[in-house]
Amino acid sequence: MTVVLLILSVITGVFLGKHFGKKEKLAKNLLVLSAGFLITICLNEVFPQVYTSEVGSSLGIFVIAGVLLQMILEALTKGFEHGHFHHHSENNILPMALMVGLFIHAFIEGIPLANEKEQLSPYLLGIVFHNLPISFILGAFLFNRKNESKNSHYPSILIVALFALASPMGMLLGNYFNPNLQPYFLAIVGGIFLHISSVIIFESNKNHNIDWVKIGLVILGVSLALIMHLFHHHPAAGHSH
């Protein structure tokens, strides 16, 4: 179920991006909505698990490491994670660099899934919700390039396949790690989530004008995540291992 959701989130986003990729406003709105959802999952689900663990007090450095790691990865992806559409018409982004950056990003996010006890955990849905707009932009970039020939779709399909399989592969590897390392991986992913969601929310606020649509989308994303948090059963609350 987890693997199916992860793969479907990428395929669905790429399909929408391929056919509606010229609607940049739609992608931006999806990104802002997902950012509100993601930052709420991060603060209400990921960080509590990190800081209530036995080693929680020493994990701040791993959160910072996650932020720095995402900044490094964005040198490869050129900001695909937070919607830099302007690179579609430029030649300064290499498909190989994009593939490597997105793969590492998704692979690391998949590792903590190995120790998630519920099939539809908030952490999993946070990744799924985040995958949709990224995949939308990826599909728009890969399949709507003006100078792309029929044969060049094959590398594009390879990039999509690797991105779709990255998180499941990370989850597979996570089964081989000691479960006691879970807080460390969650701390790193928490840093990644925090960086991406905050950049999406604040970067698009041009000239510090009030954008009521963006504010509304953030509130909607936060509300969806809070509703999920309120109705989500937390079996490990009150005791750490």
TrEMBL record:
Instruction: Name the UniProt key words of this record, in alphabetical order.
Output: Membrane, Transmembrane, Transmembrane helix
UniProt cross-references to InterPro entries, sorted A to Z: ZIP (IPR003689)
Q: What is its main location?
A: membrane
Check the record and name the Pfam families matching this protein. Zip
Parts of the chain that traverse the membrane = 26-43, 55-73, 93-111, 123-143, 155-177, 184-202, 214-231
Its localization reads:
Membrane
* Membrane topology label: Multi-pass membrane protein
Q: Which PANTHER family match?
A: PROTEIN ZNTC-RELATED, ZINC/IRON TRANSPORTER
Task: Spell out the protein name for this chain.
Answer: ZIP family metal transporter
